[in-house]
Design a protein that fits this description.
Blueprint: E1 3-14, E2 17-28, E3 32-36, H1 43-50, E4 58-63, E5 66-67, H2 73-78, E6 79-82, H3 94-104, H4 109-122, H5 138-150, E7 156-160, H6 168-183, E8 187-192, H7 195-201, E9 204-209, E10 212-217, H8 219-226, E11 230-235, H9 241-248, E12 254-258, E13 261-266, H10 270-279, E14 284-288, H11 291-299
Helix pairs in contact: 3-4, 4-5, 8-11
The structure holds adenosine-5'-triphosphate and magnesium ion.
Magnesium ion binds next to helix 1.
């Protein structure tokens, strides 16, 4: 599949701080590509360069066939961004917020009216169209940001942590909408700190940490390669490591200590769990492996801290 975004040695410096440190990746047409990483990893900085609102310090970044730079208006017209911050005009109503953007994109008035009605339906905000922004819940504001990002009918949609602060129901609604966009053939870039979100939506992901890419791949494959199928968490003081590793280590394909917990990685966790029960270890958790485990293994810390 043809790449719509190609980054090579992409860097972003703010003074002496290197926020994005020489990353390379390709995003293909029609896929949902995820940037995962903890606070300050460089996710927003990266997507802001793709959206041509932040200059590239060094390296190359090609988006939809042209070089990304802040004066590339044509490129800005072809992308839609759902920003991490809620940047809505609080003096205006829901509909007026969209009208301002339609004007900005020079969409003719009758066409704008039609698109706004469609988009308000798409994000289930028709009933709120005349409400002012302070009257909306966070979930409604985030949905309005999605509608706004779609006004110019972009082929490339960037959503920067679109579900932060939403309850599970609101989160699922946003996921459904993003999946529908993807099913229409749009290319989607998503940043998130939620592993489940990445597993639900992304075809491929990169895991970022301190401006660098640690791993890239298909979520399920990364989990299978790095971790296996199952994880057993044993809460124990580090002094117990010797005994526990002697008893449980041979039954696992790998392990990691993070804080007060020993994580054992298995493809079939039953023999290990049997041993855990024999040893009568307190507060153990046995569960399916997730992307969070991949991150934990790569960085020795958990993603949301
Ligand atoms: N405008 C700016 N000026 C100076 N430093 C900045 C600026 N924007 C971001 N940074 C710094 O760049 C680094 C990466 O920030 P960025 O916002 O890209 O992280 P992030 O992965 O999006 O994090 P979060 O999950 O918190 O949104 C951080 O150290 C941040 O302090
Ligand atoms: Mg961010």
């Amino acid at each position: 599949m043809e790449p719509v975004i190609i980054a090579r040695g992409l860097c972003k410096k703010y003074g002496t701080l290197t926020a994005v440190d020489g990353i390379s990746f390709e995003i293909r047409r029609g896929e949902c590509f995820g940037f995962l990483g903890p606070n300050g990893a460089g996710k927003t900085t990266t997507v802001r360069m793709i959206h041509c609102v932040s200059p590239v310090s060094s390296g190359t970044l090609s988006v939809l066939g042209s070089q990304a730079h802040v004066d590339n208006r044509a490129l800005k017209q072809q992308t839609g961004i759902v920003p991490q911050e809620i940047t809505l005009d609080t003096d205006l109503t829901v509909r007026e917020n969209l009208q301002v953007f339609a004007h900005f994109f020079a969409i003719p008035r009758t066409e704008a009216r039609k698109r706004i009605a469609e988009l308000l339906r798409f994000v289930e905000l028709e009933k709120k169209s005349d409400s002012r922004i302070p009257e909306l819940s966070t979930g409604m504001k985030r949905r309005l940001l999605i509608a706004r990002a779609l006004l110019n009918r972009p082929k490339l949609i960037i959503a920067d942590e679109p579900t932060t602060g939403l309850d599970p129901q609101a989160r699922h609604l946003v996921w459904q909408r993003l999946r529908r966009l993807k099913s229409q053939g749009d290319t989607l870039i998503l940043t998130t700190q939620y592993m489940e979100e990445a597993q639900q939506l992304c075809d491929r992901i990169v895991i970022m940490h301190r401006g660098r890419i640690l791993r890239e791949g298909v979520p399920a494959r990364l989990i299978a390669e790095e971790i296996g199928r199952e994880v057993t968490e044993v809460r124990a003081a580090p002094e117990q490591d010797g005994g526990l590793l002697a008893a449980l280590g041979p039954l696992a394909r790998g392990h990691e200590r993070v804080g007060d917990t020993l994580y054992f990685y298995c493809d079939d966790g039953r023999p290990l769990m049997k041993k855990v029960l024999e040893l009568d270890l307190p507060a153990t958790v046995h569960r399916p492996a997730s992307l969070e485990d991949v991150f934990l293994k790569l960085t020795g810390r958990s993603l949301v801290e």
